[in-house]
From TrEMBL:
Alphabetized Pfam families for the sequence: peroxidase (PF00141)
PANTHER family in the cross-refs: PEROXIDASE, PTHR31517
Protein name per the record: Peroxidase
GO MF entries: heme binding; lactoperoxidase activity; metal ion binding; peroxidase activity
Chain sites annotated for binding heme b: H202
Positions bound to Ca(2+) 2: D254, D264
Native source organism of the sequence: Populus trichocarpa (Western balsam poplar)
Length: 350
């Protein structure tokens, strides 16, 4: 019984620190923004975050890969037009159609959560906030053993009305670290934020052969594999992804088989051993701008706290509030002028 009490006390202490810290991060958003704003048809108050949490818990019980899917979705959404759920819009040439987003999934799940909330308190909760809340809850579910994965989320975002594939400019799996730092800095995210966001996001999920096969045989036209890759891992991946095979096989981004489904610091331990799957992951452990941070994280006990801090900052990137956006009735479509879900009437925004 002692450990649960310690974990609960730690969670409370961290939440107070998070609230104080994140209040300085974004004055546009609030903790508990939806408190008292969601009443069902019988007039009873409903807790929006509890609704989302229960939906995530149920989904995770049958599909643990939803954690990686939601982390990727939030990053791909926030890194383009800001955290405005523009990635969810079904419009011609929208963000969904951009090459980096073709493997993003979980759209149906966010719509499922939105439907339940709309049936409870229509017109109150944005799709952008649902993405952020659901991602946090998925991270928590992945880390239930240690119970340290929780972090608070600020809410109050509005949904954007514009979604265009040409706006999707995301860091590639082989981007050099200095360029990656510049990309994150352009979103007001620091180098250490980048280290935590890449590490947390890549601590779960898989990468298909096409994303790392260039490292296995003819790295940068040398005729040899990437020398930074652990030789045991190299042989394993060469078997998984034969040269010129076009294999669609995949490898866990975290090569510790016991921790590849949990958002934790194991990723940093693995890339220090040369077990990074993507080039950017391995370079994170080698580049002079980031390798000391990687080493510190791998040897520390505060990953969950610091990752949560970085996620709060990511969630505050270029958010829309007030008249800058809307509360969509359906996540896949902007509202029509009469307040209904407009379907393709707003295709001009694509």
């Amino acid at each position: 019984m002692e450990m649960p009490r310690v974990a609960a006390a730690l969670a409370l202490a961290l939440s107070l620190i998070f609230v104080n810290m994140a209040s300085q991060c974004s004055g546009q958003l609030q903790f508990g923004f939806y408190n008292g704003k969601c009443k069902d048809r019988n007039g009873f108050q409903r807790n929006v975050e509890d609704i989302v949490k229960q939906k995530v818990k149920a989904r995770f019980s049958t599909d643990t890969t939803i954690v990686a899917a939601l982390l990727r979705m939030q990053f791909h959404d926030c890194f383009v037009n800001g955290c405005d759920a523009s990635i969810l819009l079904d419009v011609p040439n929208g963000e969904k159609t951009a090459p980096p987003n073709l493997s993003v999934r979980g759209y149906d799940f966010i719509e499922e959560i939105k439907t339940e909330i709309e049936n409870t308190c229509p017109g109150v909760v944005s799709c952008a906030d649902i993405i952020v809340m659901a991602t946090r809850d998925a991270v928590v579910e992945s880390d239930m053993k240690s119970r340290t994965g929780w972090y608070p989320v600020q809410t109050g975002r509005r949904d954007g009305r514009v979604s265009s594939a040409q706006n999707v400019k995301l860091p590639s799996p082989s981007i050099p670290i200095p360029q990656a730092i510049a990309a994150f800095n352009s979103k007001r995210l620091s180098t250490i934020d980048m280290v935590y966001l890449l590490g947390g996001g890549h601590s779960v999920g898989v990468a298909h052969c096409g994303l790392f096969q260039n490292r296995l045989y003819d790295f940068k036209n040398t005729g040899h594999p990437d020398p930074t890759m652990n030789t045991t891992l190299l042989k394993t991946l060469q078997t998984l992804c034969p040269q010129n095979s076009g294999s669609t096989n995949s490898a866990n981004l975290d090569q510790d088989p016991l921790k590849s489904s949990s958002v934790d610091k194991s990723y940093y331990e693995q890339i220090r051993l040369g077990n990074g799957i993507l080039e950017v992951d391995q370079q994170l452990a080698l580049d002079s701008n980031t390798r000391f941070s990687v080493a510190r994280i791998a040897e520390s006990n505060d990953f969950s706290f610091q990752f949560g801090r970085a996620m709060i900052k990511l969630g505050a990137v270029d958010v829309k509030i007030g008249k800058d956006g809307e509360i969509r009735k359906r996540c896949a479509a902007v509202n029509s002028p009469n307040g209904n879900s407009g379907g393709n009437i707003f295709n001009i925004f694509g």
